[in-house]
């Protein structure tokens, strides 16, 4: 069993709490230091049956419902469903539309393959996906030089909140061990 952990998450800062509350995601901060019981996860994985989408125990079958997830995470499950669209048209200069969208939302220009700043081995952006590791490192470096405070401008707090949520979404809730790329569609939600 491999666990990515929360290395790609900016540390929680109390100044972003009002933004998390407005989004009804203030309980997400509780997952930043979550401990994983690898033996338990491995045991549960051995009991999972793909055919029935249930855990097969001696006492019978059991499954995890959305209600259980909501109870354990304190995250809202009511309201409109979250649908992530990856389509954003390229603009006239041929740059991917997501590059401009990320710049407008986070204030950072992500280098794409073929740019001077991008490495050919692992560019920070591929198609409609952005590297969470690159994004988090960029903002960690930024906030080391310009620390977030209670007196920081609202747009700076909002930007920090977005990067924090992106790290939590891609690094904790929907992490994929094969890559550290996150669909840019999540930026629309964060």
TrEMBL record:
* Sequence ranges assigned to domain Aminotransferase-like plant mobile in this UniProt record: 32-185
Q: Which domain of life is it from?
A: Eukaryota
One GO process term, biological-process aspect: meristem maintenance
Which is one Pfam family of this protein? PMD
Q: Which InterPro entries match?
A: AminoTfrase-like_pln_mobile (IPR019557), MAIN-like (IPR044824)
PANTHER family, A to Z: PROTEIN MAIN-LIKE 2, PROTEIN MAINTENANCE OF MERISTEMS-LIKE
Name of the protein: Aminotransferase-like plant mobile domain-containing protein
Q: Which organism is it from?
A: Linum tenue
Q: What is the lineage of its organism?
A: Eukaryota, Viridiplantae, Streptophyta, Embryophyta, Tracheophyta
